[in-house]
Amino acid sequence: MRHVDPTEEQSLVVRAKEGDMEAYECLVKAYERPIYYLCLRMAGAPQIADDLAQETFIRAYGALPGFKEGRDFYVWLRRIAVNASLNHLRTAKREEPLGDREPAPYRDLPQDELLRREAECEFQEALGALPSDQREVFVLRAFEDQSYRDIARALKISKGTVMSRLSRARKKLRVLLADRIERRRP
Q1: I need a labelling partner for 23 at 20 to 30 A (CA). Which of 87, 92, 112, 181 fits?
Q2: Domains defined along the chain, listed by start
Q3: What is the pTM of this model?
């Protein structure tokens, strides 16, 4: 998934490393949507995703001098976003008392839209219930369409570890979603 021509991206990165804010702004504009949606899938809440995306771009700017030319900027940026999201989830898990979450209100929605939103909420809750290492691999594979090899390289784990975490994540999601469906039945 490339949002900028590789040659143009490298040029923008070089200029941004030299302090050209317009070049960095172009990189932000090119990648803000995919980074936001990645953070949204990881964190499950739009407000938090906004904050995490912003944090990603701030961290990336600070770390830009260490970015190695010739590498894929988006892959590097995505890694920063995943780390920021995981750090947030670890912190939130320690701080959030059980039962504090309240579902978003759904008023005056057409039946199909209501069902779609409920299903999306249930999926996001199930995704949020996964251990962070499984969620990370699942999101990168299912939503970012990354290969096992690319995920392994990005996370610095073996391809076999990627496959086992993904398998465990899928099994756990099936169980969690099946439980939710059973509870809804009259």
Answers
A1: 87
A2: 1-101 (1.10.1740.10), 102-186 (1.10.10.10)
A3: 0.64
